[in-house]
Amino acid sequence: MRKLVLLAVSVLALVALGRPATALAYGAQGHEVVGAIADNLLRPAARARVRALLGMPLRAASTWADCVKDVMPVAGQGMRYNPDPRFRAACRRFDTPAGRARMQAYVARNWDRCAADSHDQACHKTYHYTDVAIQHDRYDRAHAGTSDHDIVAAMAAAIDVLQGRPAPGPVAIQNPTEALLLLAHLVGDVHQPLHVGSVYLDDEGRLVDPGPSGGPIDRHIDTRGGNAIEDGNTNLHAQWDAIPRSIDPAVLPAAMLKAARAIPPTPGPVAQWPARWASSTMLVAREAFAGLSFTRVGAARPGNWVVTLHDRPAYEATRATLQQRQLTLAGARLAQVLNALWP
Ligand SMILES: [Zn+2]
Predict the structure, then answer these.
(1) For 143-171, what is the mean pLDDT?
(2) What is the pTM of this model?
(3) How far is the CA of 12 from the centre of ligand 1 (A)?
(4) What CATH number is associated with residue 277?
(5) Cα-to-centroid distance, 7 and ligand 1 (Å)
(6) Distance in Å, CA 4 to ligand 1 centroid
(7) pLDDT, tens digit, 9 for 90 and up, residues 236-266
(8) Domain count, the chain
């Protein structure tokens, strides 16, 4: 009996260690769910182009843009891929000699395209988010937190390359394969509300306006999409990245697929879809920050806040519902854009 208990404890410990909760934004699981939904909704022409460009389904390709975050400069050797063992499982499919060369070339080309105004030293990491204050009800380049190298700009650049035009601005995409690897990931991220909407807070934890786009944002009020808002030993951003474990990309819930097929098409020209999707996520971000209050941590970790949930069970239930809805939307819209590009 004691042995059984020990076995159970060590299995639980292994499960806990293997859980990809934070570092892979939205988690490999979330991205694979989005890719798997889109795989099911592709029409034959788009499916054939995806297979030709990627050699793998969207579900597998969806994690590439997070895997490349483990490419770093090594003195005297240029960029080197050195995978974090905790996340290797979702990245192993890219870890071939040709796959490493592709990842290293992408990062070398994009590393310092925007260093001056970035939280991250590596510019390509900024392609995964934008930080629009939730007081706004839509994404607009006039708002602080947006840039020509944010998630909307990066998706627009990927669409340009897939339509046969060069990528504009700082986002440097070499070919359609790289563009599709990016798009398959970023359409997932742009539906994660804390990858789009953010709160800027004063010392009393009240919402403040970070001002217009272009000027430097006061680091003291910036929560970095909820990454600086602590809840126990995790943070608000990470909690929204980690999706309910019951949603399995290998066995998609039938109700989710049915709902994805019923999502209405995005209106307007394809080039405008990234901004439209970000605008729709802004309204979800408002819900994600509702019912919360914030207290500055103080000298221990300056620049961080602690969150208080007014009704934790209700908040967590709402979060799970919204996450499922957003994953469904993302999967449907990834298929929409590829079906529109390759009718
Ligand atoms: Zn991401």
Answers:
(1) 95
(2) 0.91
(3) 28
(4) 1.10.575.10
(5) 35
(6) 39
(7) 999 999 999 889 999 999 999 999 999 999 9
(8) 1
